[in-house]
Every structure is written in C-alpha cells, then in structure tokens.
Amino acid sequence: MSRTIRHFSLHRIGTTELRVVADFEDRNVLPIIEIEEKVIREYIQHIDLPHQWVMLYILDDFKPLIRQLQAGVSPDLLEPKGYKLTKESIATLSSRPVVNLFDLSNLIGCNVFINRKAMFESGYWTDHRAIEALLAHEHAHPLAENKTTQASRCLSINFDRSLIQPPNLYPIIKGLAENLCILAPREIYTNQFAIENGFCKDIYYLDKLNFENAVKGVSSRDIFLQKIHQEVRSGKFSRKEADLLIIGGDLSAHLPLAMEIAPFYRSGFTEQAQNLEKILTEHVLPKLDPIVLPIFRSLQEEYLSLQKDSKELSEWANRIISSIVKGLSEKGLTLNYQIEMAKFNECIDRGNNSEINKDRN
Edge-to-edge, what's the strand order for the sheet holding 106-115? Predict the structure, then answer.
C-alpha cells in the first residue's frame, strides 16, 4: 500500500493470528478491531477455522487497493497466484464497504478490507451491529464454498444485444441475469453459513436495515419516473422504451433481495424470513410494475431449491432467466440468450480462483 501506516497490531485468537493495518487515525478503529476479533472467535466456536492468519486492512478508501490490483500486484503477505482478478471486479471496489480477498485453492489465510468512506456513506461506520454482520458475511465467503458455488464461477449468460432497445437497457438486463444466477449461489450460501454459525441476529439486523432502505427507495421512484417521462417528451425514448427502462430498474433494484430472504428459510429461521418478505410484499412490490411480483415468487422457489452439489446449475439458471424473459415479453421485449457452463479448470485459467464478492451492502 502506498499510504503511511497509522496503526499496526498483532492479535492471537485461538490458532489464528490477526494482523491489523490502518492508514488513518480514528477513534473507531479500535472498536472495529474488537468486532473482528469477536467474529473470528465466534466462528472458532462453531467450526474448525482453516485460517492460520487473517489480514485486516482498515483503509480511508480503496484507492490504494484498486491501484495495487490494477497493477497486477497481490495484497501484502499473500501469494500472487491467488489474485487473477478481472477489470470488472476491480471496478466495483470503490463503493464497497467491506471485501474479502482469498485464494480458493488455499484457505490458510484471507485479506479483509474495510473502506471507511463507503462505510460512512452507507451509515455503517459507527453501527457496530452492522459492522459485525458485514464482517461475519465476508468471513463466511471462503468458509461456505461448495460444488455449487464453484460451478457458479463457470457459468456465463449472454444476450443478443441487437434485440434490446434502447441500448442502455442491455447492461441492465445482463447485470441482472449475472447477479441473480452467477453471484446468487455464493451470496445465499455465505449468508446461510453465517446464520447457521452464530450470526443470525446480526445478519437479520443488517438485512432489515437494507429492506427498510428499499422502502425509502421506492418512495423516491417517482423522481426517476418523472425524468424518464421528460425524456419521452423530448424524443430521447419512445414510450415503450421508457416503460422497459422503468421495469428493468424495478427488477434490478428489488429482485436481488430474494437472495437475502432465502438463507433464513433454508436455515430454519422462518420468522425472520417472513418478516423480511412482509416488508417487500406489503410496502415495496405493490408499488412496482405487476410483472415483478410473479418473477420474485419464481425466484424465491429457485433459491430455496438450490443444492450444495448442484450438477445442473445451467438448467437452474435457465429457469430463472426464462421467468424474466416471459415477464418482459408481456411488455413487448424479445430476448434471445445463451447459457454456457465451462469446465472448472477453465474457470481457474480465466482467473476466477480469487474472490471480490459483489455484495449489495
């Protein structure tokens, strides 16, 4: 890292060494270290933690990390082979509050990065319960690995761009498909692992905050609608194109919330799952386009059916995409798509043996 180190400390939790680096001075750094120790200690009580060391970077922002990764340099104290990251993954970092970088082939340690700027903007910086949930979630990513999460890295979904109008709807559709099919298995199993290993209350607390934010967000949807309608009047979009952009926004903003509910159902915490679902079905989904709710229900069923040794992940993804395609066809949009599943060793060669988890928090 290119910045001056303001804090460095070593801590021993069981057989795991926690190494802490911070590039700024803030009275909230020490409480965050205590929360990180608590998270590691809780996991040690529930599982045989594979990490001999954890490197915790508490950074003012992620600019130095982004520069380092763009230059092809691994974080300190980690072997370079574990960090063949894509440009797209690196580009998502600046707004992320917490990330965990780890080598899928060797879980001897991991690198957890905290972004103070993003944490502050999200309202998490002084919310210790939220910080605990975020750290528990990030630590669970390598611990929750299974055949299905590995297979998800080999999945690719492509759409015929020429059929999608207006053109700026294409990245919305493609991003939605990748989020719901490729990233979702990892997110679902990660939260399920955290919930089942001591962090149910914390994950629920964080999810409830985010669901309440979704309620606030849908109330500001009218501003977006006014902007789109103004662009229709100016001739930038046709009415049909505007409606599709609105629906694309509705789907992208709210369908991923299904992957937050599913882990509670899957872990047997039905009350928490139902409480979150109630927020959506009573205060959010009724205010969106009518096609969103049936797609959401279909998505819930697929997320609950997911198995750890899924050998038919492409078929599972196809069912999800089909429900979206069917809904959008009712609005006059025809989509042609192709789902491919590469061999796992080919995924490794492409550089997917490392993680930047595209969480929504």
Answer: 7-13, 16-22, 53-59, 106-115, 98-103
Inter-residue contact 134 to 164 (CB < 8 Å): no
Tokens of 202: 């914390």
**How many CA atoms lie within 13 Å of 315's alpha carbon, on the beta-carbon side?**
6
Same domain? 195 vs 255:
yes
Q: Which domain holds residue 187?
A: 155-344
In contact, 87 and 356? CB cutoff 8 Å:
no
Share of the chain above pLDDT 70, in %: 90
- Phi/psi at 14 (nearest 5 deg)? 60, -125
Here the CATH number for the domain that contains residue 70 is: 3.40.30
Buried residues in 32-65 as b, exposed as e (16+ CB within 10 A):
bbebbbebbebbeeeeebebebbbbbbbbbbbeb
191 domain-assigned: yes
Look at residue 294 and tell me if it is in a domain.
Answer: yes
Do 121 and 233 sit in the same domain of this protein? no
Instruction: Name the domain count of the chain.
Output: 2
What pLDDT score was predicted for residue 82?
41
Contacts of 62 (CB under 8 A, 6+ apart): 93, 94, 96, 99, 113, 115, 118
* pTM, two decimal places: 0.92
Alpha helices in 28-76 (DSSP H): 29-46, 63-70
Confidence category of residue 244, pLDDT binned at 50, 70, 90? very high
Q: How many residues does the chain have?
A: 361
In angstroms, what is the C-alpha Rg of the chain?
21
